[in-house]
């Protein structure tokens, strides 16, 4: 079984971890990562409750036009992994370059935070039954201010999931049975 290189974590996982801690702002919340590749990139823990997260990162492509949009990010999710629902949340991280007055400015991180069950429903609703030759769903997110639309098959609005750190916080605070409690 392959072991991850602990000294060179994926940059998206590090950026997402920092954002989780900055946005949830709870001293009892800790973020861990597994030593083995199990399909979970991050484990967010509060007390005996935990939430598993899969991070997908992309830069924002501005030069290539996709069906009438000025730009988009590009993320992939394997159909088999999505169907197994091994993680509670998917976080799609996009490195979005801000436009300055005279030249491009630094990057801004855009996070689409969505429960796996909701992602599965949106895929079915958008008729994304085709997952390509390799069994991969592809997401092309277009950002315009606070509006986020996935443009691949049937336009789907993901604006309600932009920077929704409260969904992770609620999952950790919830007494809902869907949240798996640790057995220590």
Give a quick set of tags describing it.
five-stranded mixed sheet, 184 residues, Trna Endonuclease, Chain: A, domain 1, three-stranded antiparallel sheet, alpha+beta, 4 helices, disordered C terminus
Can you describe this structure?
By secondary structure, this protein is an alpha+beta fold. The protein has one domain: Trna Endonuclease, Chain: A, domain 1 (3-Layer(aba) Sandwich), CATH 3.40.1350.10. It is built from four helices and ten strands, in the order H-E-E-E-E-H-E-E-H-E-E-E-E-H. The strands form three sheets. A five-stranded mixed beta sheet has the order 1-2-3-5-6. Strand 8 and strand 9 form a beta hairpin. The longest helix is centred in the N-terminal third of the chain and has 14 residues. The two termini are 25 Å apart. The C terminus is likely disordered.
